[in-house]
Amino acid sequence: MDTHTLVVMNVLLYGLYASVVVVNARMTGMSNGTSFFVGANLSRGGALLLISLAGGLTGPRLPVAAGYLASVFGVMMLHFSFTELLERGPALHRLQYGLVGIAVVGTVALAFTSWLVPVGLPLLCFVEGVQIASTAWVVFLLSGREAKLAGWLTGFSLVAYAALVLLRVAEMLRFGLTYPAMAGETMRWWLEGCLVTNSAITFGFMFLSGVRQHTELLWHAQVDELTGLLNRWALTRVAQKELSRSGRTGGQVAVVMMDLDGMKQVNDLHGHGCGDAILQAVAEVLRYTVREQDAIARIGGDEFCILLPDTGLDDALIVAERMRSEVERLAVEYRGVTVEIRTSMGVSSSESCGLSLECLMDKSDVALYRAKREGRNRVMTDRKTEFSASGPGTVIPSSNS
User: Fold this and answer.
1) What pLDDT digit, counting tens, does each position of 246-301 carry?
2) How far apart (Å, rounded) are the C-alpha atoms in residues 239 and 216?
3) In whole angstroms, what is the distance from residue 322 CA to residue 300 CA?
4) What is the pTM (predicted TM-score) of this model?
5) Under CATH, to which class is 232-392 assigned?
6) DSSP per-residue string spanning 324-335
């Protein structure tokens, strides 16, 4: 296949890549990085077309230099597309800005001199190679466990692309001023390599986009949007795994049901916005009060459920009392009003009802409503132990004892 045909194929494919990514974004609703990716392909395709129309490396120096600069800007946008897709902030953006700055200064300084070919073009290609390598590093490092396969495939495609660019730099330096006359064969394998690597990069971008969308949908399916805690469905899945593990290891599991006292009055007096602020503040308190392996869920309204793996009843009571005490110290500021909140809790453990989630939740729920009847702002269990606002209280027989 001759060089002109390869140029046309690459230019057309750059446009196709941009179109496919736009269609994919509209179909999936996952648009992160799409604008930059489209810009990157159009810029690089335009750069290749400009250089070709100018007669290649033997043509006028100014359009050739402009074409290479457009390619550098295109690669910078490619980098931005992946950092935006991965939602990891401006990773290595300063490096990209610095490299583009070097390319611009170097090109302006050399475009009108005889040094463009022996120095300017290798400089531009070297900058492009470093840009692509830094993008590969970002993809390898920041894809995350959920997108590991997609990240590695995309990263290796970028590494291959960077290697092609740097090999081209080596050829330019090897032939020096005679490179334009000898560039036909180099251009052929360069363009053939671009066909393969850019196709792989586009596939990798869409692969990563699909994985990110799946992860986001899974997150929304598991997390309560207001508090960021697990929802009931996710808690059930986590509990099933923990109960199964405890069955194998002989461990104990405890469940704490928690309900905020007086939330109806708060919503009536200060509005549901205040109630939402309180729920978010309580969720934050629960996060730093429990252990990393514990699971916290908002299961409805102002009701929470905390799953405590490898925890017996006595330890669960201590944890619950600590949570109650932390919530009691909480003061939420809302539109100039300070609102305090209290909570009642019910605790059960696998010691009394085995490794059954339904039984654990039912018994802790009964204990919770008993705590409500007994005066609120206290921790109670399906057995005979009580914690009140003043600490361990008297022994009160449970109706389920």
Assistant:
1) 888 888 999 999 999 988 888 888 888 999 999 999 999 999 899 989 999 998 88
2) 22
3) 22
4) 0.65
5) alpha beta
6) HHHHHT-EEEET
Q: 148-175 and 121-142 are packed helices; what angle lies between their axes, rounded to 10 degrees?
A: 160
Count of all residues that appear for the chain in the document: 401
Q: Left (φ > 0), alpha (ψ -120 to 50) or beta: where does 143 sit? A: alpha
Strand order in the sheet with 391-392: 295-300, 303-309, 253-261, 342-349, 379-381, 386-388, 391-392
Cα–Cα distances (Å) from 393 to 60, 318, 320, 336, 344, in that order, read 91, 13, 14, 36, 14
Which structure tokens are listed for 202?
């586009």
Integer Cα distance of 244 and 351 in angstroms: 15
Instruction: Retrieve residue 270's tokens.
Output: 């200060």
Segment 180-200 mean pLDDT: 82
CA pair distance 62, 172, nearest whole angstrom: 18
d(CA 137, CA 145): 15
pLDDT in tens, 77-96: 999 999 999 887 788 899 99
Q: Is 319 exposed, middle or buried (0-12, 13-18, 19+ CB in 10 A)?
A: buried
